[in-house]
Structure formats: C-alpha cells, structure tokens
Specification:
With 382 residues, the chain is an alpha/beta fold. Helices cover 40% and strands 14% of the residues. The strands form four sheets. Strands 6-7-8-9-10-11-12-13 form an eight-stranded parallel β-barrel, surrounded by six helices. It has a two-stranded antiparallel sheet with strand order 1-2. A two-stranded antiparallel ribbon has the order 3-14. The C terminus is likely disordered. InterPro entries: Aldolase_TIM, Alpha-hydoxy_acid_DH_FMN, FMN-dep_DH, FMN_HAD, FMN_hydac_DH_AS.
C-alpha cells in the first residue's frame, strides 16, 4: 500500500504512485525529479510515441500464463527490467538508494547505482541486489579508475557508461527554483562530497541557476570520445553497457568497440530537448545491431504494457526510472516494491492477453504505428 495523508491506498496503476509522490514531496524536489530540459518537448514526446505503438495480439495460442522471467547480461531476472540510475535518491526518502536496491532485490530485477548516488556503492551493493554501476566521464582520470575498481570490489556485475551528458541540459524548473542539494544529501561516491558537505558547489545557491548543474559541470569532462571508451574497456573485465545511444551509426561503432550491451535513451527528456523519443529510435538501432549485443531502452516506460511494446520492437529489456522513484517517495522500500510488483503483474497480464507464453514470443509480436511516428523494423506493420 502507498501511504498518504489520509492513510494507505491501493496501487492500481503507476499513475497512483505518481500522484502519491507529488503529494509527498516539496515542490522543488518534485520538479527536480519530474522535469525535463528546455520546453520539455522530448519529455512529452517519449510518452506520446509509446502510446502510439499498437500491439497485435495472437489468438488460439493456448497460453494461460505469460512467463516474464529471463536474463540480463547473463543474470536471471524475474522480468526484463532494471531500475535506471538516478542521482541523489535521499532527496525523496531518507533511506534513498538502499531502500530502492532492497526493492529491486525483492522483485528480482537489476538495480543500477548512479555514480551520483547519495549512498556509497559499497553500501548499495551490500544490499544484495543484482547491481550494476553507472559511470560518468570525470575530469579526474584517477578518480574514474578508482570508481571502476570500487565497483568491481563491491561485486557489481556491469559498468554502465552514460554517454549523453557532455554537460547537463538546461532544466528550467531547477533553474527557476535555484535548486540546491540540502546539507544532508551528497554525491557520496565522489571524494569531495562527504567531507565538503554544505561547502560543496551542489549545496551553494546559484542565483538564476541550478547548483547541481554547476557541480556536475565541474566534475564531468565534456570531451568523452571513442578513445576514452577504449581506455575504460582496458581497465575493467566487467561487461560494459553504453547508455544514451540513439543513432544506428553509433550503435554499430559501439558493437565494433566491444561493448556488451547498450541502452537506447534520451535521458528521460532531460538532455537534448527536441531529441527523438527513445522508442522511436529503438527499431533502427536494433536493426543495425542485428543481434550482436543486447539492446535495452528507457525513457517514458510507465506500465507492463509499455515493457511488452519495447520487447515487441526488439528490445532485450527496459530501464524504469521515475516510476521506481515515485514509489520510493510515496512509501520507501515498500512503495518501490509495490511499483515493481505492479509492473510484473501488468507485464504478465499483457503477455497472456497477447498470446505470449514467454519473452521470446513477446519479441515476435507484430506492432503497428502511425506513419512517421516510428521507423518500422523487420516484421512490423508500417
């Protein structure tokens, strides 16, 4: 049950969690997690594109139960879902990443810990979830290598390099709110954060701007290139996932460079405003990769039916971001667990109704989309 001022309420869809989180959070925190960049056109387009993907169910299949279980990068999962990397989760609940990682462990899905987590990677991995570590390209190469080694030593099963943030997008809600981190929340994995505390850039108000944006600009190197990808590949034996691939040419080059998976992502509409919706880019990337590595997708996933749509369009799985954070904000670990349980229930129901016994048959469903909305992949109806 999601908690509210009037008591506990049943969660019937992800929208219930969204509304509960909105009630629970201060407005400036809500804007920080909910907002996109610029006019937020890509933020809206992500949902529009998903809503316009139609599935063609199969009949007379004899399917009585859709089996959602599968694997991601060789690890068994209850459904092809990972909790997306999201920064500073203690903003929305005191337990932050530890609560959400526990929810992921209970749900049997992957938890991707952000480099900008408000708990250390050691503490997060210690929860026992299947944990991947998300990495930004830092100006300090030694610190980058140190974080890679810490992730390995903590038992993380993969590195997720985010490649679409040479700098943060202009997130106007945060700028108008002059958003700063409270003194109790730090980027716990960055060496200066625990000691600097309220003295760090992210805690100092920037008139007319976002302190988090300034802090990120100081820490991240915008000049990330293919040569740097090779530098990372040479320093770890962990599977390497690239997050933020949208162009088929980049996808092909990434496979040639030896990446183990990629995530088609426009960063949930928080980076380039006007970018293609992630699900619109998915088919051409899947076609280009042609089975050489798993392709996941994020941005706008709000239901189990959305997960099924992504699978039908060729994805191996999805990353779920804001919905998990809404559950955390509304009810801590229990709230996040309820969101993930609901996604599983919805996916199983959608697979059954579509005549899909398992994930393999889900990937063979036919999709239909309005002309111009989504590039058709092999087997789809334009």
């Amino acid at each position: 049950m999601i908690s509210s001022a009037s008591g506990s309420r049943a969660l019937f869809d992800i929208g219930d969690a969204e509304r509960a989180a909105f009630r629970a959070l201060p407005r400036h925190v809500w804007d920080f997690i909910d907002g996109g960049s610029g006019s937020e056109s890509t933020l809206r387009a992500n949902r529009t594109a998903l809503d316009q993907v139609c599935l063609t169910p199969r009949a007379l299949t004899g399917v009585t139960h859709g089996d959602c279980a599968g694997e991601l990068l060789g690890s068994p999962v209850s459904m092809p879902v990972a909790v997306a990397p999201m920064a500073y989760q203690r903003l929305v609940h005191p337990d932050g990443e530890l609560a959400l990682a526990r929810a992921a462990r209970s749900a049997g899905v992957v938890f991707i810990a952000s480099m900008l987590s408000s708990r250390t990677i050691e503490a997060i991995a210690g929860v026992g979830a299947e944990t991947w570590f998300q990495l930004y390209w830092l100006r300090d190469r030694d610190r980058t290598e140190e974080l890679i080694k810490r992730a390995e030593a903590s038992g993380c099963r993969a590195l997720v390099l985010t490649v679409d943030v040479p700098r943060m997008g202009r997130r106007l809600r945060d700028m108008r709110n002059a958003f700063t981190l409270p003194n109790t929340v730090t980027a716990a994995n960055l060496p200066e954060s625990p000691a600097a505390g309220p003295g760090s850039t992210a805690h100092r108000e920037q008139p007319g701007g976002s302190a988090v944006m300034v802090h990120t600009a100081e820490a991240l190197d915008p000049a990330l290139s293919w040569a740097d990808l090779e530098w990372i590949r040479d320093r770890t034996g962990l599977p390497l996932v690239l997050k933020g691939i949208m162009d088929p040419a980049d996808a092909s080059r990434a496979v040639d460079a030896g990446v183990d998976a990629m995530v088609v992502s426009n960063h949930g509409g928080r980076q380039l405003d006007g970018a293609l919706p992630s699900v619109t880019a998915l088919s051409s990337v899947v076609r280009e990769v042609s089975g050489r590595c798993p392709v996941l997708v994020d941005s706008g996933i709000r239901s189990g039916t959305d997960v099924l749509k992504a699978l039908a369009l060729g994805a191996s799985g999805v990353l779920v971001g804001r919905p998990a954070l809404w559950g955390l904000a509304a009810g801590g670990r229990d709230g996040a667990s309820e969101v993930l349980h609901l996604l599983h229930t919805e996916l199983e129901q959608a697979m059954t109704l579509a005549g899909c016994a398992d994930l393999s048959s889900a990937g063979r469903l036919t999709t239909t989309v309005p002309a111009g909305v989504l590039a058709a992949r092999t087997g789809t109806t334009p």
